[in-house]
Amino acid sequence: MTTRTTHTARATADAAEAADTALLRLDAATVRFGARTALDAVDLDVAEHEIVSVLGPSGSGKSTLLRAVAGLTALDDGRVLLGGADQRDVPAHRRGVGLMFQDHQLFPQRDVGGNVGFGPRMHKAPREQRQRRVAELLDLVGLPDAQTRAVATLSGGEQQRVALARALAPEPRLLMLDEPLGQLDRSLRERLVVELRQLFGRLGTTVLAVTHDQGEAFALADRVVLMREGRIAQSGTPLEVWQHPADEFVARFLGFDAIADAVVAGGTAVTDWGRLPVPAGTPDGPCRLLVRPTGVLLSAEGALRCEVIARTFRGGHVAVRLRPERGPLLEAECALRAAPREGATVGVDFDPEDVVVLPG
Amino acid sequence: MSALRAAYDRGTRTPRGTGAAAGGVRRAGVRAALMALPLLFFAAFFAYPVGAIVTRGLHQGGSWQFGRIADVAGDAGIRHVLWFTCWQAAASTGLTLLVALPGAYAFARLDFPGRRLLRAVVTVPFVLPTVVAGSAFLALLGRDGFTDSLFGVRLDTSVWAILIAHVFFNYAVVVRTVGGLWAQLDPAQEEAARMLGASRFAAWRRVTLPALGPSVAAAALMVFLFTFTSFGVIQVLGGPMYSTLEVEIYRQTAEVFDLPTAAVLTLLQFAAVAAILALHGWTVRRRESALRLVDPALTAHRPRGAAERTLLGAVLAVVGVLILLPLGVLVARSFDTPSGYGLAFYRALGSTDGGTFSVAPWQTVGNSLRFAAIATVIALAVGGLAAAALVRRAGRLVRGFDALLMLPLGTSAVTVGFGFLIALDKPPLDLRDSWLLVPLAQALVGTPFVVRVMLPVLRAVDERLREAAAVLGASPWRVWREVELPLVSRAVAIAAGFAFAVSLGEFGATVFIARPDDPTLPVAVARLLGRAGALNYGQAMALSTVLMVVCAASLLVLESLRTTGSGEL
């Protein structure tokens, strides 16, 4: 089995080629619920072995996207293609995709083995092969002795593992996860997301996962797709999206709120905060400007005077919220010991590396 | 999900792509296919016979005689019957609520030894044939009855006998409908109110009562419906003084042979029942509002304090006097032969010497069991398909179908029985001499119970569980077999038990269509009661006891299955 990085490199470096060999392709896929458009002419390609995270606020259409691909919700327009074949008249149970539900939906009347073996049984796998597969998968998700346990006796994390094993058992060509870690507590989530990524890498599974948690999406995926009101707002590697949010919506969704109007002229931008350096090659003219917290440098002699209004401890650093003398609120990142106290007045300088001009 | 369903409901009006339209059409097709058999069944064995008898009554001399409606409605005797029907139903309902609501609380919230057994026992009257209940009260309150010999009080020709019998009958309806919900209400809600400063009573009145309101209303309407159409009880206990619409329909049809009057009365009853059912449907839908429900096993507690112990004592006393005593007296009378206590009446059941029947009364047990078993199979098939169609809940059309299924519960069984006789005796449906008539009529009464029991359970199956199975490769048929059926198998068993017990006790329609040489148990009891002589009376008591034991046994089996879910009845 080849490693994840080679696949990723191939899949994302040559997007055009990947599109030709796309395992999943959405072509202007549209779903309407009455007057509301849940999915608005969405185009999306997922290459074989790729892990794609769909990220967005609730109601942005991410779950509808999964349901449309699974065949649980019919398209009003456009097409879903799997391996190049139009899935219009293919019912859910013949699409050969796996879906792991948000709240797992394990069958309460079957034990763990019965749940995991359900898919292979539906695909008429012989008994011995089925048993082997169940044992193999339970081993894989770290529950080797759980075969005969009742579903009701499982903890949240164990249920999640069984649901994953069940979804993987029929060897779906595409595995879809709907908020896979949604109901688990934070530390378990952080551990599992790493495990999941390693597991999918080892198996070479193609994955389309939906989540509202950016940390989860960025940790899991090769590529992140951000959705807004039924459309794709941005698609790219986690690093690309993080460094270059496509627009103000994406920036704000990622938690960046220090955004101001600006006019760029000759390498500097004029804003309410004063003159800010911008990255080389930024075109002149009016635009919206984002300053990332890492680009807000506190110093005694900084030109812009700010009042410290709040401090939040974030593990290794402190997030400091600042009210500048003019312009929108800013956020800065400080080392634990260097953080100014609330109510203090500090000066601020800007690092051009973390000043981002938002397109549009 | 609701948005999705709404979209399907609007499917034909909203402009949609071909893919979605095809899915919608397919779903509508499946639903139509599921509804086909129940609709056909109801058309052939309900609408057609009832329509035929109404037509026979009102369509005479080549024209419709609508003038008869005014004539009948203007008749003083009929007006008296109407008045009595309404007020005895209202009084019975009020009395039942008064007596049964504390019982609902005790069975829902108090934990005491023998609770499960007692809950099963109080349900016995509900599935008991009305004739048997009537004879139990006759034994209790009638000539030489329990109260007569003890206190010299006879109530069998007074309206009190009727009212008390109705409470006896419908106690379980209130305990099950209201108590079922009460047991599942989260006590934390009341606790929250009390933490906000409400007294115990205020918390109950402001939090619990509003939550229970719709289910109390639904139970009250159900009791009103059952007592409004009461037949067997009035027939046995009412004497010549008291007559309900249903009894009057029977009298006009079978004794006076005045079909036009019977037809008008049938229509009247039909209208009243339809109104009650519409009201019932409305309250049941309101009951589906979001309530916090918890496992009933967690809400019950041992009685605490003098007040709760007094309440429990009172409830147990009421159950003892109102339910156990009549049943006990019935059993006692069946052994109380002229020559001391013994099995003489039971022995007499085995012979044809009485001359009442051409067969030994004992054989009617076999008849009844056989008919009820067949009726149960029919009711399960028809009701199961109907429930499967209804679970994919949708627009007004389906709601109408839902109400239609309930209609046989309230329609005059006498009309149905007589309608069977006059409508199903010529091709294409010539069943005049077929033994199948009886189970068909009984299935008609059993089907609403099957639907009521199955529907809430089917609706409770998470749609995404079905989807999870589909995504794992299960075809719709496999989804039904592998996921849905195991989850509802308990409900199927309960529905079957209800249908069986109700079929076993069906009297109003069966009395018309059972062949003289092949009577069912309740019909035999009624015939025995209608004849003079201690032997006949004793045999009626013995036969009633047998019927009661069979009903109670099937019910106790049900109770052991019934661990969760309140059902709608």
Written account of the structure:
The complex is a heterodimer of chains A (360) and B (569). Chain A has helices spanning 4-13, 15-20, 62-70, 112-116, 118-122, 127-140, 156-168, 186-203, 214-220, 238-243, 248-253; strands at 24-33, 36-46, 51-55, 77-82, 85-86, 97-100, 174-178, 207-211, 223-228, 231-236, 259-265, 268-271, 274-277, 285-291, 296-299, 304-314, 317-324, 330-335, 345-350, 355-358. Chain A is of the alpha+beta class and 360 residues long. Chain A folds into two domains: 4-252, P-loop containing nucleotide triphosphate hydrolases (Rossmann fold, 3-Layer(aba) Sandwich); 256-358, OB fold (Dihydrolipoamide Acetyltransferase, E2P), CATH 2.40.50. In chain A, the strands form four sheets. A six-stranded mixed sheet of chain A has the order 6-7-8-3-9-10, sandwiched between helices. In chain A, strand 9 (223-228) and strand 10 (231-236) form a beta hairpin. The model of chain A is unreliable at 1-19 (pLDDT under 50). Chain B has helices at 2-9, 18-58, 67-74, 76-109, 115-127, 130-141, 146-151, 159-184, 187-195, 200-228, 232-237, 245-255, 259-287, 305-335, 344-348, 363-391, 396-410, 413-423, 437-460, 463-471, 476-505, 510-513, 521-529, 534-561; strands spanning 59-60, 63-64, 336-337, 340-341, 425-426, 429-430. The model of chain B is unreliable at 1-22 and 563-569 (pLDDT under 50). Chain B has one domain: MetI-like (MetI-like fold). In chain B, the strands form three sheets. Chain B has a two-stranded antiparallel ribbon. A two-stranded antiparallel ribbon of chain B has the order 3-4. With 569 residues, chain B is an all-alpha fold. Chain A binds chain B through residues 30, 32-34, 36, 70-77, 88-89, 91-99, 101, 103, 105, 107-109, 118-119, 122-123, 166-167, 169-170, and chain B through 3-4, 6-7, 10, 14, 16-17, 19-20, 22-24, 462, 464-465, 467-476, 478, 482-483, 486-487.
